[in-house]
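Dear Dr. H.,

I hope your travels went smoothly. While you were away I took the liberty of generating a structure for the chain from your last submission, since the lab meeting agenda had it listed for discussion. I wanted you to have the full record in hand beforehand rather than looking at slides cold. The sequence, exactly as received, is reproduced here:
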Amino acid sequence: MGRKSKKRQVKEQDGMTKSERKEIQNLCSQLMELCKTPTQANPNKQWEEHVQIRSVVEKIRTKQQGLHRLFVDEEREENLDAFLSWVKEHGAMCNKVKIAKYNTEGYGIEAVTDVKEDDVFLSIPRSMMLTVETARQSEFGKLAETDPILKSMPNVLLAVHVLSEMFKPDSFWRPYLDFLPRSYSVPLYFNEAEMSYLQGSQAFSESLKQYKNIARQYAYFNKLFHTSPDAADVPLKNMFTYDGYRWAVSTVMTRQNQIPSTNRKYQCTSLIPLWDMCNHTNGKIRTGYDLSQNCSSSLALRDTQPNEQMLIYYGKRTNMEFLVHNGFVYPDNENDGVTVQLGISKNDKLYQKKTQLLSMFTLKS
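The corresponding predicted structure, in token form, is as follows:
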């Protein structure tokens, strides 16, 4: 009798064997089923669901560990000079400022000369930006037209575009991508213990919903990239990991801005290199799009001296919104607040009078 041969597990282009890929596909199917259920209103039920979802996500992350690392081993600051050269080479107006590193905020923008209130201190041309329009002009063009999620959610389209560019050695945006943060402080990166600390706050429910949404999106795209004919030209399908998608989503979520589309018919979700390194303070929005120069321009909020940080106003957000979507809280936030849910029963004899009273204070019953 001859000896039975052992089947060799051959690793393919994505660095995985067929059986390993099949295991991840099965886990993604489990994840999709868990995420399909409507979110419970009860916080305890939300937490139970989150623990289940997280368990499957962690299994996926474990199986993908070491695959397709986004960054090589060098520190972020080692790419600073290349990024600055790229910025200047492609027409950014930034001679009044420099990139600086701070103890609490990390990197930011610092004045190198006196900057008066309302002076333009940064001007970034459209040609440097990663936008929904550049995504539609990329290998995602067909999917952006046919897939309902990519068609209706510009932030998601921009995220997969950013991730795909990250894996292209010759990407036009290579110096910018190499200087982006390696990870983020948004709740998507919290471990289970850290997430549990949010219980009792408004950020708890919002963070769990966000985690669930991103898990569902990852499972959805993992299948789409391997099955849709329109994904045939998408190289990302062979290197699409949960950690990579989380990074791309967090990059867009924490740094996005809106600019007019080239045809000026809609607002276009965009990443604006260098400008997106400005940190937040109270004030008013002083960044706009100069249609005549085809660039984004930022005006100084106040008189700023050399070696002082140039800060911008991110918009009217509570600290809960800042934490969930930007990964920080601002102690002196003038717009901080909490949402209090009040209800009036329609069986209440005074229902009509109470709703009229609420409407006088622009509140809804």
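Two observations you may find useful: The first helix runs from residue 18 to 36. The beta strands are 97-102, 106-111, 120-125, 130-131, 256-260, 267-271, 279-280, 287-290, 295-299, 311-312.

With kind regards,
E. W.
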